[in-house]
Amino acid sequence: MELEFAQAPDRLSAFAAMLWAWTLAFLPRLGAALLLIALGFAAAGWAAKIVRRILGRSQHVDATVIPAAAAVSRYAILILVLVAALAQLGVQTASLLAVLGAAGLAIGLALQGTLQNIAAGIMLLYLRPFRVGDYIQTDNVAGIVKSVGLFVTEIDTFDGLFVFAPNSQIWNRPLQNHSRNGSRMMSIPIGISYDADPEAARRILLGMAGEDPRVLKEPPPYVYVDKYGDSSVDLIFRAWAPTPVFWDVQRRMIEEAKRRLEAAGIEIPFPQRIVHVAPAPDRDGTTAIAAPE
Q1: How far apart are CA 293 and CA 288, in angstroms?
Q2: Sequence-separated (6 or more) residues with CB below 8 Å from residue 143
Q3: pLDDT averaged over consecutive 10-residue blocks of the chain (293 residues)?
């Protein structure tokens, strides 16, 4: 017992010497790993900026793809840097990749919604049903696309609101792109009185369309009788206009149609109904008829 107690300082000295030797050997590796991580984060940010700049200058790359490409390049460099840093610390990369695979599976099961957003973002970037600057409309949101990322799509609504929409909520629903095609057709219902001549109204509306240079000549504008309403003959005026000026032209046609029809003496009636009131029957079931004066 006394011998073991006497040997304790020697054992502590040996352990301290071993610990000091391990520290001297590990500190350079730790410093190299930390330096590699710092340089890797800087290189990842630099690479993302370079990708944005190069793709932004290219005429063959759509602006929708640029943010996602920059994000992919940044994350790829960060993953490689972290693996290299762990290798500097003596971690076996083969076992590390196995652990990362198992952790990725567990995280994937826990974050199924996030992975759905990533998959939807990849499909949106690949198929490109819309681009940055397009006006789109779904069941949930409508507005101008500002950016498309791996997780979310950023949209500005017409009334100035910012919408942070998950990609899966856009990909899994029918979508209307109001900016995709070069031209659009306006369909304006116009009611005229039963006393008016539909052919005269047709000539006035077609003349109105022909005088506006923004209305396309092909396909040509046309007007037809749609139905006979309760108080009016309902016409449909249809014409095509370039998409960038579509809304302005449509509003102009609606205002100008009323002005020109009224100037030509063609009435645009408001809904009205004529009600005939029958006299109430007497208690014996007969209807009282007033005697002529």
Answers
A1: 15
A2: 135, 136, 155, 156, 157, 158, 161, 163
A3: 51 62 67 81 84 74 71 81 75 64 59 73 85 90 88 89 89 90 94 91 94 93 91 93 94 94 88 69 57 49
Instruction: Tell me the C-alpha to C-alpha distance, in Å, between residue 127 and each of 32, 62, 64, 110.
Output: 43, 12, 11, 28
Sign of the alpha-carbon dihedral angle for 216, 219, 220, 221: negative
Beta strands 222-228; 162-166: pairing state? unpaired
Structure tokens at 25: 């050997």
Note whether 56 and 132 are within 8 A (CB). Answer: no
Domains of the chain (ranges, CATH numbers): 16-110 (1.10.287.1260), 128-177 (2.30.30.60), 183-263 (3.30.70.100)
- Please list, in sequence order, all residues whose beta carbon lies within 8 angstroms of the beta carbon of residue 119, skipping any fewer than 6 positions away: 168
Whole-model pTM: value is 0.59
Q: What is the 3-state secondary structure (H, E, C) of 237-276?
A: EEEEEEHHHHHHHHHHHHHHHHHHHHHCCCCCCCCCCCCC
The amino acid at 78: L
Three-state secondary-structure class, residue 80: helix
| Token pair recorded at residue 283 | 């208690």
Distance CA 188, CA 195 (A): 21
pLDDT at 236: 96
